[in-house]
Design a protein that fits this description.
16 helices
């Protein structure tokens, strides 16, 4: 029998609003999904109808023994038009927070998880100098209304995502997609993307983008980001943190980063060092005043003298094309702790697979790594598996099965998988 975590360790699962709530009609991604020249396999539609079914989903977490739920508040719902805040939607998220607490679940709230209001993109999106102040204004309204209810707040999910996407897009151009893995997924970005289709449609899409967004280039959060755009994201975090400190001083605040277990083969040391600097070290200065870092890891990336290595043939891979490598999580926690000396919270870690026994095996090895880190004195305070539900994996649609709970696409019926109760069996105080 495995060892359980201590009683104060937060153990749970994660979702993102756009991926599970459904009908996020005021967002940039909703608009992009419904364009003729879309890179999305299918629209999100009703998603998992979590917007209405959250009480059932939270109760399933409680029944499994989980103690926290990381979810995001959707900016496009709260502020559907610039400067117009929807009190009904704010009240909805208050209800979600209170439902968590009524079920003994600690809410861990993310204020921005990839999707943005459509109006923000019209203003230039995540390359516009006005975006940090716009984000801070949204955060101020939320903190006035909900801040007193929260103990853990993630400002921005995967602040480094745009640079990862930019790097991949550049690599695809150079390699003419020669290294495309059989799944069509590049494992060096930890989200569901279809880069080949994206590039084919760029020219046709520009005209339609102008029609839909009023600008020929849609700079959404997961677009390939410039250095200036990265500075904008960092400034948005800093301003949001300042607002949270003012209005919700009891809450722990941090951002989350997409982090690979970056490994170097002989000759690959320089490549690996450069990637780690870009994924993690460059964000250290803005994280110094944070209370914690949200660590998000799914796999490793290996570099040799030629750069990123492809996954060797015959290696077990997930539906996303990632190497099955749960040991990466413990490695990443140890590495970030060398330079970041505050609390660590695993805000995402998981596997896309139809075979739940492989999910359980992944969890077993990943959680063993977390426990080893804690035994060695690392301040790891929580773990939320990605994801609670089989949900909308961005451009990959509904084909990727990350969930601890299956969702019938027609009826929305929930069916907990064995992995849900297995994860819960690690909760403190349980045998």
């Amino acid at each position: 029998m495995h060892t359980t975590f201590s009683g104060d360790f937060l153990l749970g699962a994660a979702t993102a609003a756009h991926q599970v709530e459904g009908n996020n009609t005021k967002s940039d991604l909703w608009a992009m999904e419904h364009m003729v020249h879309t890179s999305f396999e299918e629209p999100s539609g009703i998603a998992c109808d979590h917007y209405h079914r959250y009480p059932e989903d939270i109760k399933l977490m409680k029944q499994a023994g989980l103690t926290c739920y990381r979810f995001s508040i959707e900016w496009a719902r709260v502020e559907p038009e610039e400067g117009v805040f929807d009190k009904k939607e704010i009240s909805h998220y208050r209800d979600v927070i209170r439902c968590c607490k009524e079920n003994g679940i600690e809410p861990v709230v993310t204020l921005h998880h990839f999707s943005s209001p459509k109006w923000l993109i019209t203003k230039g999106g995540w390359e516009a100098d006005t975006t940090p102040e716009d984000f801070a204004a949204y955060v101020r309204v939320l903190m006035k209304e909900l801040g007193s209810e929260l103990s853990w707040i993630c400002t921005i999910n995967e602040a480094n995502m745009g640079l990862q996407v930019a790097e991949i897009a550049e690599r695809y151009k150079k390699q003419m997609m020669a290294k495309m893995q059989r799944s069509g997924q590049d494992s060096s970005v930890q989200m569901g993307m279809n880069l080949e289709k994206m590039m084919q449609q760029q020219k046709e899409a520009a005209k339609e983008t102008l029609e839909v967004f009023g600008t020929p280039k849609c700079e959404n959060f997961t677009s390939p980001r410039t250095e200036h755009g990265d500075e904008i994201v960092q400034r948005a975090h800093i301003l949001a943190r300042k607002v949270i400190r003012e209005l919700a001083p009891q809450a722990k605040v941090g951002l989350t980063l997409s982090l690979h277990d970056v490994q170097a083969l002989p000759g690959g040391e320089e490549f690996a060092a450069g990637i780690w600097e870009r994924e993690f070290l460059r964000y250290l200065p803005i994280m110094q005043e944070d209370d914690f870092l949200g660590v998000q890891n799914y796999t490793r990336s290996v570099y040799d003298q030629n750069g990123l290595c492809t996954v060797p043939e015959g290696t077990e891979c997930t539906q996303m094309g990632y190497e099955f490598y749960p040991e990466g999580l413990g490695h990443v926690l140890r590495r970030v702790a060398q330079d970041f000396h505050k609390d660590l919270f695993v805000t995402e870690n998981g596997i896309a697979t139809e075979d739940d026994s492989r999910r359980i095996a992944y969890l077993s090895r990943a959680l063993s790594g977390v426990q080893d880190c804690i035994r060695d004195g690392l301040p790891v305070r929580g773990y939320t598996y990605w994801s609670l539900l089989d949900n909308f994996e961005w451009q990959k649609g509904y084909s990727m099965k990350f969930g601890l709970i299956a969702v019938d696409r027609k009826t929305m019926e929930r069916t907990p998988k064995e992995s849900l109760s297995y994860l819960g069996s690690y909760a403190g105080g349980r045998a």
